[in-house]
């Protein structure tokens, strides 16, 4: 690929990267909140899930960062070939291409079903999907830099509206709905953490971002701040939903955030604040879908040595749109993808198993990376490969 031209449109600061992760995570849990809708043991302890989830996601992010520091100028698509050889490396690349495309497809489906269920029941699903995919593909073609700047405009609204919903819900909160604490025991809590951990482990996608950071050695700060702040917002949101509705009602809600917004009624004056959820959804899902298409297109270009990734974006966007329609005939069918037995193995292969295997190979072949991201080992051949970008 023409790396010089690519660098001009892809450079990111660590703060911009962290804000992208916040949009990606807050957008999904505010709308779907899989910690509630897919928990195998839906009980009142669910608001404690972030306390177990955040440390685990930090481990995933640390593995991704450590791996990226061995190859600070390459993505996982590129250095997987260095570590495993051209054939296995290409197979790994194809695995991530399919994962990123499915990532975009699921977001498109989530958006269209949310609009049809909550706001526009008579609108054809193809209209909503088409509008979202064209917008996201256009953003993906313009690279990380443009997307990050758009996200900087969106993130104050996304984060701010979460807190607005929390404070407006305070009159409806009943702390009795949160007790007794730990009635289900630690085993139930661990099982209930599986799905949120699988969703939030997409912090591993920093392996597609590290080469474009202005300072790759700042990647650990992205992980620490991004995971911690998003975990805090998840805690606030689960706490609010359970405290307002009670667990028996909350666990039946497909879109808990939408139901929470419709529950708000302050002096018959502040009512029906669904627009807050709508803004959070549009902002978060737009960023998620754009990143998914960008990662998939970049992976295709790097896997097959194309000069540019931009021509691949719209074909992959069409593929993601088609996949979105194949996820199921109804909301209940595609939300089954969030069940622990499906999402955990699928997600953790990409977010934990493959990166961990590559990290072990990197240590065996190259020693250890320095804090600045330059490999430290007498074997200069590996160093030259890592810098040959």
Features:
single chain, 389 residues, mainly alpha, Amino acid/polyamine transporter I, two-stranded antiparallel ribbon, 2% strand, globular, disordered C terminus
What does this structure look like?
- This protein is an all-alpha fold and 389 residues long.
- Helix content is 72%, strand content 2%.
- A hairpin with a 3-residue loop joins strand 1 and strand 2.
- Helix 2 (14-31) crosses helix 8, helix 2 (14-31) runs parallel beside helix 10 and helix 4 (49-70) packs antiparallel against helix 10.
- The longest helix has 33 residues, at 86-118.
- The chain is globular, with a radius of gyration of 21 Å.
Short description:
The chain is an all-alpha fold. The chain has 17 helices and 4 strands.
CATH class: Mainly Alpha
What's the number of helices? 17
Please give the radius of gyration in angstroms.
Answer: 21 Å
CATH topology: Amino acid/polyamine transporter I
SSE series: HHHHHHHHHHHHEEHHHHEEH
Strand content: under 5%
Summarize model confidence as the mean pLDDT: 81
Quick one: biggest sheet?
2 strands, antiparallel
Low-confidence stretches: 373-389
Structural class: mainly alpha
Shape: globular
Distance between the termini: 9 Å
Number of strands: 4
Number of structurally distinct domains: 1
Major sheet strand order: 1-2
């Amino acid at each position: 690929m023409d790396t010089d031209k690519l660098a001009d449109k892809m450079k990111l600061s660590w703060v911009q990267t962290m804000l992208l992760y916040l949009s990606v995570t807050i957008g999904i849990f505010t709308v779907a909140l899989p910690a509630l809708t897919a928990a195998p043991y839906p009980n009142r302890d669910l608001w404690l899930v972030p306390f177990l989830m955040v440390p685990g996601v930090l481990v995933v992010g640390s593995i991704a960062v450590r791996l990226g520091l061995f190859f600070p100028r390459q993505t996982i698509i590129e250095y997987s070939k260095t570590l495993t050889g051209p054939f296995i490396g290409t197979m790994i690349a194809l695995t991530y291409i399919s994962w990123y495309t499915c990532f975009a497809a699921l977001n498109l489906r989530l958006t269209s079903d949310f609009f049809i269920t909550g706001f526009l029941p008579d609108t054809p699903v193809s209209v909503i999907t088409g509008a979202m995919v064209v917008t996201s593909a256009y953003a993906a073609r313009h690279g990380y830099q443009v997307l990050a700047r758009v996200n900087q405009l969106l993130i104050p609204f996304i984060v701010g509206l979460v807190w607005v919903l929390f404070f407006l819900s305070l009159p409806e909160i009943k702390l009795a709905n949160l007790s007794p604490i730990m009635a289900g025991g630690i085993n139930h809590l661990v099982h209930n953490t599986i799905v949120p951990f699988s969703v939030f482990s997409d912090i591993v996608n920093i392996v597609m971002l590290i080469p474009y950071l202005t300072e790759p050695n700042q990647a650990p700060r992205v992980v620490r701040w991004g995971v911690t702040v998003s975990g805090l917002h998840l805690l606030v949101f689960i706490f609010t939903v359970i405290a307002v509705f009670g667990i028996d009602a909350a666990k039946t809600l497909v879109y808990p955030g939408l139901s929470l917004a419709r529950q708000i009624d302050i002096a018959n004056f502040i009512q029906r604040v669904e627009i807050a959820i709508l803004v959070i959804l549009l902002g978060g899902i737009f960023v998620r879908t754009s990143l998914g298409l960008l990662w998939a297109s970049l992976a295709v270009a790097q896997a097959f040595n194309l000069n540019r990734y931009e021509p691949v974006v719209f074909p992959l966007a069409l593929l993601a749109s088609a996949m979105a329609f194949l996820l199921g005939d109804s909301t209940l069918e595609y939300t089954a993808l969030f069940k622990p037995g499906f999402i955990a193995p699928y997600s953790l292969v990409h977010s934990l198993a493959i990166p961990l295997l590559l990290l072990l190979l990197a240590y065996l072949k190259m020693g250890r990376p320095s804090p600045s991201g330059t490999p430290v080992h007498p074997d200069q051949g590996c160093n030259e490969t890592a810098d040959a970008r």
